[in-house]
Model the fold of this input.
Amino acid sequence: MRALTYTRFELVRTFRNVRLLIFALGFPLALYLVIVGPNRDAQDFGGSGISFPLYYMVSLIAFGAMMSLISTGARIASERTEGWTRQLRITPLAARAYLRAKLAWPGGWCRCWRW
Done:
């Protein structure tokens, strides 16, 4: 199994997880709209010169990036418990490629929000 193939497999598997998509994409968007909607006219948040919608959006992005990196560790641990990593050691896939594939989702998530 090649590293790029495994990375593609991991990304497809991640996007098929409906619960993850709801909590990673839908929930923060709904929370942003509910909280920022009434406060969209606040232009100087706490005397910082930054508008409240921008401040809250950056806060949500930072929170999402941290949570995606933390959840990656839990996902690797659960796969190790189930014996999936043992199965992968039999294949010619390098351990480095496995870790790179696991970090593709949170790393891509963090990179896509950089403006």
